[in-house]
């Protein structure tokens, strides 16, 4: 416990002298300048911190196991003593006075240990963010014992932030500064705050009731009841301590904003969907972005806003595009190719359409000193938003059903099936070669014409014997044509269109890519004997085994295939060891060995980037990560080490030891396997692992049932803004009232409907400091 608390406070009583970490000199081959030297220094500092945590992870695991062994010995001896006493064993019974003395001594020892523990934790708390200069020679030992807090921050600038600023930025983009809603406007009352937080839920309920023709009196009564309960629970003023912290963090955020603006710096979350900030020079960042756009073959400039339009303004051209698309939809409705209600869903309203805009996020997964940029497009309420949503709801269930046999549902599904192939069916041979393929242009695989042809062929080939309800396959092609050819976006005073693919932020894009790769991968898999091999795909990654010939011949086959289909760009990995979906997979002479894989270029102790309510999302992530660990790790030792890595990740990110312990205990207690946490018995672990394999299979079935509800319009997602208060209690009250009011409704009853009520944080560091701003374009 004490070791873990030390990590939480970025301190440790363990000496790291054995690491022998010397500050390296900058190589002579690299031209020296302030920025390069600062990058080199930052990278080395992180390396030191990671090595310290790796060392701590080993110490923590050894300490846990040692404590458990001693506790077992003590419990066994104590039990034996009491048994002998109760059974009046000769020469081993004890007087009442002696028993009382022993009990008193045990209590004193326990109290003493507790006092020492509390004293040390108090020391950690008082000195966790001290101002000592650990660069002084006399304090080298203290410097080694200190654990850094820069895991979630990549610094690519010579500017030196203040220590307090670094502490806040190191919490990462998902960190939610506490109670900012309550201090954002000093003039607002508690009633105003609660009303603002309830507004999204109230709006969603009104739309839901209107859609299902709920009588207005019933609708009004229910919404009033919900609001009364919401106001009752969330009208409590925040404690003074939280109020002080809220103002302190707001001032700190403002100081960071001033530093960024004054020094021409840019702050962005990283593109690898991890809880990491990147801070660099604005001019350098934009130069890389401009270079990317100049070289990209996926976009084409429609018109330049810097040039005064000689014919008509840009917004007139956009309105012409909307009118043309709506006219085509009108013709489809007139020809009864689409129904009237479908037409109402997909037609674009010019007054509500927003022009999508492109922004870039840095990708630092390969080299921390040489960032690459990844484009993203904000597409909410774009010209094609409605039609894309409609087509995805139509196609996704069909596509998922057809692709089910050749795709993995998730990480757990993959490793469970691989384990079945190797250890249940015993089809993994000592000569079996493993191969993975990673698609690098997943969202821009081919031209629009070729994409339409592939989708047309896919639907015709798989649905020819099935009567498809309206719209027909030709109508779907027409709608897809409108979707693909009307995706435009804004970037630096230019309007662009896509030549390949479509925005990666629209779900339909992934569905179309899945269709295309299904047809593409069939040409590879036809060379594979399904009775011998194991294969499948998850999004942009493919895994398969190969027994047909040697690894060299497999490589020749894949390279020949690459030459014939050059539009799909990919990297391959062939051998007895590969990595797939964050799993390290090894064929050890016909025996399958797996564990969690970490890219050496990506920091290990980093949380994922999550949205909605951060703490709730991280809670879900920890449970999933523990399940992934037990499914991936064939060795009990590897599993326990991975569990410690996860615990330290949360502690270094500011999550309390109570939070971590509660979730870890719940994980082991789920199958009543409390002792497995401190037990390295491989046979017992294999049984425990098998239970989780069965659990993931059942969880997948439940997830598919939920998806089925969603496809049939029975899943309703509702949310409200949250900053402080008893959200769990409100959620329970909401579901209780819903059941009471709609238990007999043909659609909204608990039997026919799934309500997902979630809370969403209003402010995170990403939204306050790093979120790309929507461009302001001049239009009437």
Task: Compose a concise summary of this entry.
This protein is α+β, with helices and mostly antiparallel strands and 780 residues long. Strand 13 and strand 14 (583-588) form a beta hairpin. The relative contact order is 0.11.
Q: Could you explain how this protein is built, in words?
A:
The protein is built from 24 helices and 17 strands. Helix 7 packs antiparallel against helix 8, helix 13 (385-403) runs parallel beside helix 17 (507-525) and helix 14 (411-424) runs parallel beside helix 19 (614-632). It has 780 residues and is an alpha+beta fold. The chain is globular and about 100 Å long. Strand 14 (583-588) and strand 15 form a beta hairpin. Helix content is 53%, strand content 13%. Among the domains are: 2-129, no CATH class; 296-348 and 383-603, no CATH class. The strands form six sheets. It has a four-stranded antiparallel beta sheet, covered by helices on one side. Strands 1-3-2 form a three-stranded mixed beta sheet. A three-stranded antiparallel beta sheet has the order 4-9-8, with no helix packed on it.
């Amino acid at each position: 416990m004490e070791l873990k608390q030390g990590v939480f406070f970025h301190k440790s009583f363990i000496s790291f002298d054995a690491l022998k970490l010397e500050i390296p000199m900058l190589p002579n081959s690299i031209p020296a300048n302030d920025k390069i030297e600062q990058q080199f220094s930052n990278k080395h500092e992180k390396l030191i911190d990671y090595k310290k945590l790796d060392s701590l992870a080993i110490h923590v695991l050894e300490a846990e196991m040692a404590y458990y062994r001693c506790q077992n010995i003590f419990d066994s001896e104590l039990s034996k003593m009491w048994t002998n006493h109760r059974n009046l064993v000769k020469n081993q019974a004890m007087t009442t006075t002696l028993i009382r003395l022993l009990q008193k001594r045990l209590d004193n020892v326990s109290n003493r240990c507790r006092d020492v523990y509390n004293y040390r934790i108090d020391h950690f708390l008082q000195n966790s963010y001290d101002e000592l200069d650990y660069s002084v020679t006399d304090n080298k030992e203290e410097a080694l014992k200190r654990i850094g807090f820069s895991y979630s921050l990549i610094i690519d600038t010579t500017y030196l932030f203040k220590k307090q600023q670094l502490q806040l930025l190191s919490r990462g983009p998902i960190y939610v500064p506490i109670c900012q809603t309550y201090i954002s406007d000093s003039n607002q009352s508690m009633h105003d705050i609660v009303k603002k937080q309830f507004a999204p839920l109230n709006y969603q309920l009104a739309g839901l009731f209107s859609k299902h023709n709920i009588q207005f009196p019933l609708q009004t009564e229910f919404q009033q009841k919900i609001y009364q309960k919401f106001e009752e629970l969330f009208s409590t003023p925040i404690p003074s301590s939280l109020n002080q912290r809220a103002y302190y963090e707001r001032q700190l955020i403002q100081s960071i904003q001033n530093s960024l603006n004054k020094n021409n710096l840019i702050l962005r979350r990283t593109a690898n969907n991890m809880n990491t900030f990147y801070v660099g020079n604005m001019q350098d960042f934009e130069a890389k972005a401009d270079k990317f756009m100049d070289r990209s073959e996926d976009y084409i400039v429609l018109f330049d806003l810097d040039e005064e339009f000689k014919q008509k303004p840009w917004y007139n051209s956009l309105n012409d595009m909307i009118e043309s698309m709506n006219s085509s939809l009108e013709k489809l409705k007139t020809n009864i190719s689409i129904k009237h209600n479908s037409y109402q869903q997909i037609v674009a309203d010019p007054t509500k359409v927003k022009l999508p805009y492109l922004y870039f996020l840095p990708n630092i997964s390969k080299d921390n000193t040489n960032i690459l940029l990844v484009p993203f497009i904000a597409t909410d309420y774009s010209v094609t938003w409605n039609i894309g949503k409609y087509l995805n709801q139509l196609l996704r269930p069909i596509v998922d059903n057809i692709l089910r046999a050749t795709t993995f549902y998730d990480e757990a599904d993959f490793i469970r099936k691989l384990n079945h192939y190797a250890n249940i069916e015993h089809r993994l041979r000592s000569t079996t070669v493993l191969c993975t393929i990673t698609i690098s242009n997943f969202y821009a695989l081919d031209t629009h014409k070729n994409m339409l042809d592939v989708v047309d062929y896919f639907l015709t080939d798989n649905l020819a014997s099935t009567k498809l309800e309206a719209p027909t396959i030709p109508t779907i092609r027409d709608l897809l044509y409108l979707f693909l050819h009307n995706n435009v976006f804004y970037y630096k005073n230019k309007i662009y269109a896509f030549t390949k693919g479509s925005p990666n932020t629209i779900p339909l894009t992934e569905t179309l890519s899945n269709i295309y790769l299904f047809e593409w991968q069939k040409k590879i898999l036809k060379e594979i004997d399904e009775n011998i091999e194991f294969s499948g795909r998850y999004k942009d990654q493919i895994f398969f085994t190969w027994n047909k010939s040697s690894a060299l011949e497999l490589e020749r086959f894949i390279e020949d295939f690459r030459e014939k289909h050059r539009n799909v760009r990919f990297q391959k990995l062939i051998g007895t060891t590969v990595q797939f979906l964050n799993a390290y997979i090894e064929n050890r002479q016909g025996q399958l060995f797996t564990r969690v894989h970490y890219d050496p270029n990506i920091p290990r102790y980093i949380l994922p980037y999550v949205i909605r309510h951060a703490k709730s999302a991280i809670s879900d992530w920890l449970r999933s990560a523990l399940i992934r660990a037990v499914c991936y790790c064939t060795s009990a030792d590897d599993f326990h080490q991975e569990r410690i890595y996860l615990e330290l990740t949360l502690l270094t990110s500011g999550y309390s030891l109570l939070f971590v312990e509660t979730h870890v205990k719940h994980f082991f207690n789920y199958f009543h396997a409390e002792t497995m946490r401190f037990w390295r018995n491989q046979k017992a672990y294999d049984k425990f692992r098998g239970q989780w394999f069965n659990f993931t299979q059942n969880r997948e079935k439940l997830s598919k049932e939920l998806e089925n509800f969603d496809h049939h319009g029975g899943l309703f997602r509702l949310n409200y803004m949250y900053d402080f208060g008893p959200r769990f209690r409100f959620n329970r009250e909401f579901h209780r009232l819903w059941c009471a009011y709609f238990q007999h409704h043909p659609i909204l009853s608990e039997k026919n409907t799934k309500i997902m009520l979630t809370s969403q944080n209003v402010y995170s560091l990403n939204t306050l400091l790093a979120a790309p701003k929507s461009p302001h374009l001049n239009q009437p």
